[in-house]
């Protein structure tokens, strides 16, 4: 009787690697958060410092611009009307705004009251809007003033040239013969002097008239 042998195949199953428990690193996360906060705070400090410096520069330059503008408009002795929107874009009660030669901004409202403030007291954005309106007007007025002065200077120059042509009248000294001078002689001398002055005045008037007629 034949013996049958059964071979049992043994199958080896691979073993799974041991699972390692993941422990959160609390110390590293906390350090990173502290670092981020410190960097954010440092950035805030830098931004704040820059803002403070810009505010101070804005105040300084605003005062300088206001003073320089007053030095220009004061000799002109003229006032300038400014749009109410340049002072306040939201206040509809403002009826008129006037900049005086002394650098005062007079704000009138519909009720008839008036508030005056110095130019340098306004914020920089309001000051810039005022400058954009006033500077072109100042330029026009300065141009007109220059033209008028140029005309007067040309007139005076022509008059001076004509007056140079008039001979200078030098009084002659006459010797006195005797201790007493007759009244008739003195009267005659005074009459001659009067005639000389009259002729000189008429010559000057003729010269002035001739120059003015040429204009």
Mean pLDDT: 78
Number of helices: 4
Helix content: 55-70%
Strand content is 5-15%
What gross morphology would you assign? elongated
Give the strand tally: 4
The biggest beta sheet is recorded as:
4 strands, antiparallel
Cα distance spanning the termini: 159 Å
Strand and helix order: HEHEEEHH
Structural class: alpha+beta
Structural commentary:
By secondary structure, the protein is an alpha+beta fold. It has a domain of 122 residues. Helix content is 59%, strand content 9%. Strand 3 and strand 4 form a beta hairpin. Helix 1 packs parallel to helix 3 and helix 3 packs across helix 4. The longest helix is centred in the N-terminal third of the chain and has 51 residues.
Reconstruct the topology from this structure.
Layout: H1 26-76, E1 80-82, H2 84-87, E2 94-99, E3 104-109, E4 114-118, H3 124-164, H4 183-213
Antiparallel strand pairs: 1-2, 2-3, 3-4
Helix pairs in contact: 1-3, 3-4
Which terms would index this structure?
single chain, 215 residues, alpha+beta, 4-stranded antiparallel beta sheet, disordered N terminus
A few lines on this structure:
The protein is α+β, with helices and mostly antiparallel strands and 215 residues long.
């Amino acid at each position: 009787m034949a013996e049958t042998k059964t071979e049992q195949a043994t199958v080896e199953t691979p073993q799974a690697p041991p699972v390692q428990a993941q422990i959160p690193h609390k110390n590293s996360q906390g350090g990173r958060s502290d670092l981020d906060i410190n960097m954010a705070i440092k950035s805030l400090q830098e931004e704040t410092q820059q803002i403070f410096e810009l505010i101070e520069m804005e105040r300084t330059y605003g005062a300088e611009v206001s003073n320089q503008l007053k030095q220009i408009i004061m000799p002109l002795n003229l006032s300038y009307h400014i749009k109410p929107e340049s002072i306040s874009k939201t206040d509809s009660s403002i009826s008129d705004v006037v900049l005086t030669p002394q650098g005062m901004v007079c704000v009138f409202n519909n009720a008839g009251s008036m508030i005056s403030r110095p130019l340098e007291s306004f914020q920089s954005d309001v000051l810039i809007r005022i400058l954009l309106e006033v500077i072109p007007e100042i330029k026009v007025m300065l141009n007109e003033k220059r033209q008028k002065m140029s005309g007067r200077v040309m007139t005076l120059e022509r008059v001076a040239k004509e007056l140079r042509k008039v001979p200078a009248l030098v009084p002659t000294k006459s010797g006195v013969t005797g201790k007493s001078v007759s009244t008739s002689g003195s009267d005659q001398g005074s009459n001659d002097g009067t005639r000389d002055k009259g002729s000189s005045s008429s010559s000057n008037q003729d010269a002035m008239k001739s120059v003015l007629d040429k204009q």
